[in-house]
Amino acid sequence: MTRVFITGMGALTPIGNDVQTFWQNLLIGKSGATKLTLFETGDMPYNIACEVKNFDPQDYMDRKAARRVARSTQFAVAVAKQALADANFKLDASNWNNVGVLMATGGGGITEMEFATEDMVAKGWRSVGPFVVPSIMANAVSCVVSIETGARGPIMTSTAACASGHYSIIEGYHFLQRGEADVIIAGGAESAVSMLTMSAFGRMGPLSSRFDDPEHACRPFSVDRDGFVCGEGACALILETEEHARQRGAHIYAEVLGGRLTGDAYHITAPDPEGDGAARALAGALKNSNLQTTDIDLVFAHGTGTSLNDAGEAKALKRVFGEHIRDMKITSIKSMVGHALGAAGAQSAVAAVCSLREGIVPPTINYTPDPQIDIPIVGNVAQKVDAQTAIINAFGFGGQNVVAVLKKYEE
């Protein structure tokens, strides 16, 4: 089988607008949660989020192009260009037909639809601009990256709710295995922090109610957890076949070993309380990667901070890994960056690559052990570890479960 390597990364997060800043702030346990600034909340109580700060899309694309696309698409372009630069890979006529883009998103331009609707109701149909459709369509996150970079290989957008972000990595792995491309730009982008989405999540019930203490609001796996904090951002990875990477002398970060997707067939928003679908995804990912449970060192958990999700994920992990779970390190970076929905898995993937390379696991901040969960969480302080393999979990609304497996690269 064709080996697939990660040769470049890009990041745009609430705690850093590049990979190095993101990673260093993860290690020190920096929270990106603040009072909302992206819109006026009025009397709405759901007024905290993990926002990307100090982002200028014109650092990555021209002003006219930036104005015609959603914030999530701007994010996607930014991290794709960061990742290509990090990989020292330039697209031109000699290679662009063999470079694909698989960016993911949960909501695409959902906020742009809200803004356009508000304008139409207030000002009439003539206020609707000609670029509303391309700004709201979910596949813009991949298509605009293709346009901005020149990539002309397979272009696809994954929309698997909160599991989208690293589903794109697994699908990119499959494209490379099938020989449909030499290089894939894979990742996730999301910007869904608006009055509509925050109100909807708030009324649904999964948001933390610690509105007066945003930095300590998200508490994955903690006994006093009460919900997640909405986040935004994007991350991208450059995936290459072994042959292509070696031919051009690429710097290799890690290897993608495989993954697995499953469905809960349970509920449109609630996870299966027994974690059955998640457990099947974990077991299937190990099988597809030709690994045993004892081969896994790290888990970058979905870990949203909701009562049901964390309990179900813990059950799935214990069912699959048994006693070996005591030898593993488990963490959730959502405690710091919030829940970026369709970008969440990609954020965890970048963090997992950094963790494997540097031998240290970022903490789950705000953590107080829950005796009902009883799994080895890396709580509050980063821990050193000699790790070879990591799994990344993401479980989305509708019962979509995705687990990806990465391995440390060594010459």
General description of the model:
The chain has helices spanning 19-27, 63-67, 71-86, 110-123, 132-136, 140-149, 164-177, 195-204, 242-247, 276-288, 307-321, 334-337, 344-358; strands spanning 4-12, 33-35, 48-50, 99-104, 155-158, 183-190, 233-241, 254-263, 298-300, 329-331, 360-361, 383-384, 389-396, 400-408. The protein has 411 residues and is an alpha/beta fold. The chain has one domain (1-397): Thiolase/Chalcone synthase (Peroxisomal Thiolase, Chain A, domain 1, 3-Layer(aba) Sandwich), CATH 3.40.47.10. The strands form three sheets. Strands 5-4-6-7-1-8-14-13-9-10 form a ten-stranded mixed beta sheet, sandwiched between helices. It has a two-stranded antiparallel sheet with strand order 2-3. Helix 10 packs across helix 11. The longest helix is centred in the first third of the chain and has 16 residues, at 71-86.
Largest sheet: 10 strands, mixed
What CATH architecture label applies? 3-Layer(aba) Sandwich
Report the helical percentage: 25-40%
Instruction: Give the rounded overall mean pLDDT.
Output: 96
Q: Number of domains in the coordinates?
A: 1
**Strand portion, in percent?**
15-25%
Return the string of H and E elements: EHEEHHEHHHEHEHEHEHEHEHHEEEE
- The first-to-last residue Cα distance is 19 Å
The level 1 CATH classification is Alpha Beta
CATH superfamily descriptor? Thiolase/Chalcone synthase
Query: Could you give the order of strands across the largest sheet?
Result: 5-4-6-7-1-8-14-13-9-10
